[in-house]
């Protein structure tokens, strides 16, 4: 048994965050986590990884002993990725990607199916999700319908990318027949296969999280945090007055200052700092990050080397090397308390939650007292001035300032001498 | 002995706060507190309450066993209110209202006067107050002058609405003779009565607080707090690291988080929350309110279900269900440190104090980092955007935003790689 | 041996701070500190102090037993100052000023030189400094070059004003010969003297700090703090929960509230206050100053009677009687993390550091939530409104406000009833 890891996606809807494969939770990227878990918990020992020009070097570096292939034409989507690996697809193969975070129990159920050409993991949804739906007779899949309109779904079973092909050459054959003009070639090939071959839908009852939009990082972070057990490195320096509650992982070199509170679940990466009078809860703090004094971080993801100082960061994602000046606040709730929306690739999308702050790309700096509105995405390498109100996305490498027109007043009243505080 | 409670006023100068009768201190409204105290501490057992269309249902609900009457024409003021109760005014009657908060000792002195047609409680003032002044010969009142100009006062005795009429039918007769065109019919009837009947001025030496303008809530709150004794419910959850000092009442279900400080006198209503690193002092926190982490509340009144987060609320009144975004500050001191002024019914009034913040009507939301200037009144149900400077009153159901014009800069300097904190 | 103290400078490049002679570190002004140290640690017992009209009264008050002279024409600079003291300059004299803060060891080395007409203390610099450079053959000085262009320096020895003249009448003679049209008459007279008389350059290896620009106060403060030893007055009131670490001097009457942190080296002057949840580190807090609750003061100098409340003051100098409203932040790092620049007497100067906040003159008030940009200088007696962004110097007695244009929105969404916090 082998796995084909589809890692060539360009994470365009994940902007301003970089390639989702390399997003770190704890000390490992999610693609490493996925492959390690498969290697350890299943019979899969051989991995074929398909990347693109943009991430091939990094994939090769992370997986020097595995097969790493380059998909040349990324516009051909999953179909192109599978065809890239054609010569390796002779034996039973599990196709999987980091677009869907699935617990290992679900994957094992797929791997365990017998007497069929393959199996597809499917999530039973209770409300509309914009994905591919499986049409099923008993447990046999007879069709797949890509993004039907709401209420037109053929079932409540959504296709997750955890596909077992006992004879992957059948898939290759169909893919080659399918025209390449659209990006749903893979699904069309599947639909044809389902007509003639027996594919079984495995209902997934465990956790699943899509990793498509940047706010999904917060949901994925929740899953990561849920699995943590309290573990405090003896090499961490924690002030006697600090309060550490619940399942908190504190790595080596971490420093926690006086009157800081860390309320689990929370993860504090190597050499990160929680300053005096700061509060961290339900959050992931990347290595070398500094939650400077007087800050609060709640339900957020901070990458590496993020620097805060007297901020509130709530329900937000700050990529590596981001700094916020004192008094910067991430607004994470609309005044009307309705669903927060974001603009992704020029389309306004609901984020599915009323509590969502902002996402800031790597290397950005935000000036003191600036207000960041819910749902705003800020491109990497941006400079945003002080005292501003940011209510729209900013492209990469933005350099934004603003001024409040000042007015000189007359008739200044003379102050009397101050008395000492009684 | 009976009491006629005048409760029909529309609290227009109390805007943006609702009907003052129902303002709560602790768990009871002030009208309940007034009637309960009279019932318990005096011989008055019968209460006739005059309300208006706007509050009749609520008065009937609060006082199901008392007589609650509706004054049809509210423009007729106190005269109309007394005439509404005409048929009940056969026996000695104390006329009182929630416009004047008076300690029970003063009221008892009025009730104890003998050998006269009635008595009027009078506050000896040391500086001008815009009220009715009693002209007195020895202790007999000979006239009442409504709002004389400063320095034209006939005495330093200000009429408080705590009036005993041993023969209230005399008052009724005079009220009927007085023309109805002005709203001072009651005082003119009094003036006539004083000519022929012996009314005694009782000097009030105890506490008294008018409840006319919204900032009077803070003064009334001070009186309430002064009377508190330390009392902490066993059903409250208080972090070990929290500091609770002085006369603090903490009700059931209250939660106080780490490193919070509550410095008495202070009142924390049922199920209210004082968050991590927050400070509450000299304040009243209504039930279900949340003083979210990193906030300070000083000398303020918070109604029920108010939500703060990283705010400073000083010398301010926040009505029920108000939320402030992180970083919102109530300015409570002018730069020139002079008296704070407010606009009440289009007139600019001095508030009599140099420390006064703002008053926010029920159900309002204020966005992050917004600055509220001293003396501002915000109508109920308002939405105020983030990062703004609010220096004028806002009407009810305002929805205010503002933008700082942003400018894209060129010549962005490249940042060098960040070094870890040493 | 006597000393001539040059104290007539008008501290114009020190604006918006007042006369540098009277800047206090701990409880004494620097001129007092300088003279006291000389009196105690050297053989100098006689002091001739030259002031100007602007500070003569104050100098006489501080040094009632010393000779205090007035330099009439301040435009004549050091030359004029020395000539003012002509009749006292008969015996060996050390000329010194508060423009250069030099440790006593250096001064003693100058005083100990033998067999020469005089000696000049010189700082060996490793990079360009805009001062006077000594041209030296062996240890004998042969010339002095005022502010050469960078790379045109005749040596790496910068002239410090710590000059010993064994025969000061020689200097007087030269000064009289030198034309008065320029302000470098003193240096030109020196240059002439060096031709004929043997003056020795003493290399200064100890601490030295120029006190020329307002940001030099922070460097001088560092020197002061370095010398502190932990000393806590028994007359200070320190909350049990407060944390006091390192070499902190806490004077009588100081009050430190709950959960405050003071991290040494730090100096808290008499009756100063560190409020609840505040943090003071590497800073000097003048007497009667109040670091109000929720503030952080880092690497800063606060004069007397400064009032903070929920501020961040970093790498900044606040003169006496300055108040910051809640939420005011001193930005102390540029977005591009490059050297902070300031405008001094209309010229833009580098401050030599990437971490520098602002300097605020005495008696100023800054409104809530205002953002002060790095390098800004604010004249004394200024009023600055709330919610503003101050990115340029403000002259004395400025009264600045600003408004963000507000917009009334329609289609206000109705809020549903709030649920209590679960």
Short characterization:
The structure is a homotrimer of 422-residue chains. The first copy, chain A, has 422 residues and is an alpha/beta fold. Helix content of chain A is 16%, strand content 32%.
Strand order of the largest sheet of chain A: 14-17-20-23-26-29-34-37
Coarse structural class of chain A: alpha/beta
Oligomeric state of the chains in view: homotrimer
Q: How many beta-strand elements of chain A?
A: 41
List unreliable stretches of 5+ residues of chain A.
none
Keywords:
422 residues; eight-stranded parallel beta sheet; alpha/beta; seven-stranded mixed beta sheet; homotrimer; elongated
Q: How is this structure best described in words?
A:
Three copies of one chain form a homotrimer. Chain A is of the alpha/beta class. Chain A contains seven helices and 41 strands. In chain A, the strands form ten sheets. The first copy, chain A, has an eight-stranded parallel sheet. In chain A, strands 5-4-1-6-11-8-12 form a seven-stranded mixed sheet, with helices on both faces. A five-stranded parallel sheet of chain A has the order 15-18-21-24-27, with no helix packed on it. In chain A, helix 2 (56-62) links the parallel strand 4 and strand 5. The longest helix of chain A has 12 residues, at 30-41. Chain A starts with a strand and ends in a 14-residue tail after the last strand. Chains A and B meet through strand 39 and strand 40 of A and strand 38 and strand 41 of B. Strand 41 of chain A pairs antiparallel with strand 40 (399-402) of chain C, so a sheet runs across the interface.
